Amino acid sequence: MLHTLMKSPFETNINLIISMLKKSDDFLGLQDGVLIGLKNNIFLKQLIQSSVRLYLIKDDVYARGIQKNISSKFNLISYVYFVSLTLKHQKQMNW
């Protein structure tokens, strides 16, 4: 399953999202959801321990000027790669 976070993690029930993640899932932050990738945020450790593949939309990270503060556990991707993730996962959950 592809989980996409579009809102700030501080406006979302991240603990619920993390509890639903499976190792075969991919997790993508876009729009304000890219804030989940900030180093040392309170949700990062739990998210990393979930063992899912972590992605952020590069354009959204740069638009917010936070590229130097993003955890190395996240892969920055383009919207084109986002499309390939949607093709890979027939099931998706938008948060």
Automatic annotation (TrEMBL):
Q: What is its main location?
A: cytoplasm
What cellular component GO annotations does this protein have?
sulfurtransferase complex
Q: Which residues form a coiled coil?
A: none
For biological process, the GO terms are: tRNA wobble position uridine thiolation
Q: Is Hydrolase given among the entry's keywords?
A: no
Which keywords does the record carry?
A: Cytoplasm, Transferase, tRNA processing
Signal peptide limits: none
Has the keyword Cytoplasm been applied to this entry? yes
User: Could you tell me one molecular function GO term of this UniProt entry?
Assistant: transferase activity
State its location(s): Cytoplasm
Quaternary assembly: Heterohexamer, formed by a dimer of trimers. The hexameric TusBCD complex contains 2 copies each of TusB, TusC and TusD. The TusBCD complex interacts with TusE.
Q: Which family does it belong to?
A: Belongs to the DsrH/TusB family.
Task: Please give the HAMAP family that the UniProt record associates with this protein.
Answer: Thiourid_synth_B (MF_01564)
Name the PANTHER family for this protein.
PROTEIN TUSB
Instruction: State its role.
Output: Part of a sulfur-relay system required for 2-thiolation of 5-methylaminomethyl-2-thiouridine (mnm(5)s(2)U) at tRNA wobble positions.
Know the name of this protein? Protein TusB
